[in-house]
């Protein structure tokens, strides 16, 4: 039986190395690629990767944006977020971006193994402690952390070119995300979006 080929994308070396040792001890899975950033992930990506264990918060960009790029390069690849976030709005946004599984960083290795095998077989895995019922009952759209970050950078006077570079995305992708932010906030312009976000206490 072929092993499950796993890529680790995690910027903390000690976490990544520990996971690699544990995974490589398993008979049915192996780590075939590693990365500590978005750039390294794209450089080290292999076509035989089945699952990416992904830290959403990376030093040079948004892990959710990375998902979009990787899926185009390797169709059929699956993502499991190694996350400290348990916010239902964030989880829904990640699902929309193509993340199939969620496992907290405090989970045991047995739970991580279960997430890998279940995600590969069934397509979705949500750790029981991450509030599935809350997620399923969400009715109103909210801004993700990355969207709030974009608004804060705009409020700070940063240019679209600089913001796109910091987030490791293209300017056209950034403009689509800004349009999506405006839609979520029910406004037509970025100026109105900023005013709304300030009023809601989302940005300073």
Automatic annotation (TrEMBL):
Location of the Response regulatory domain: 5-120
UniProt xrefs under CDD domains: LuxR_C_like, REC_NarL-like
Keyword Plastid attributed: no
Modified residues (4-aspartylphosphate): 55
Alphabetized SMART domains for the sequence: HTH_LUXR, REC
Entry-linked InterPro entries: CheY-like_superfamily, NreC/VraR/RcsB-like_REC, Sig_transdc_resp-reg_C-effctor, Sig_transdc_resp-reg_receiver, Tscrpt_reg_LuxR_C, WalR-like
One GO MF term: DNA binding
Protein known as: Stage 0 sporulation protein A homolog
Provenance organism: Desulfoscipio geothermicus DSM 3669
């Amino acid at each position: 039986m072929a092993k499950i080929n796993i890529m680790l994308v995690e910027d903390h070396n000690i976490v990544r190395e520990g996971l690699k040792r544990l995974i490589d001890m398993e008979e049915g899975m192996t780590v075939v690629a590693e990365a500590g950033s978005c750039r390294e992930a794209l450089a080290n990506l292999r076509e035989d990767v089945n699952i990416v264990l992904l830290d959403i918060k990376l030093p040079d960009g948004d892990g959710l944006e990375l998902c979009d790029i990787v899926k185009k390069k390797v169709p059929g690849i699956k993502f499991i977020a190694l996350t400290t976030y348990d916010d239902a709005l964030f989880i829904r946004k990640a699902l929309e971006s193509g993340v199939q599984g969620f496992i907290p960083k405090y989970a045991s290795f047995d739970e991580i193994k279960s997430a890998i095998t279940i995600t590969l077989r069934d397509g979705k895995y949500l750790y029981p402690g991450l509030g599935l019922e809350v997620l399923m009952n969400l009715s109103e759209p909210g801004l993700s952390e990355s969207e709030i970050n974009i608004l804060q950078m705009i409020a700070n006077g940063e240019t679209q070119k600089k913001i796109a570079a910091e987030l490791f995305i293209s300017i056209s992708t950034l403009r689509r995300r800004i349009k999506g932010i405006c839609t979520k906030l029910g406004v037509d312009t970025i100026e109105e979006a900023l005013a709304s976000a300030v009023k809601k206490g989302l940005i300073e």
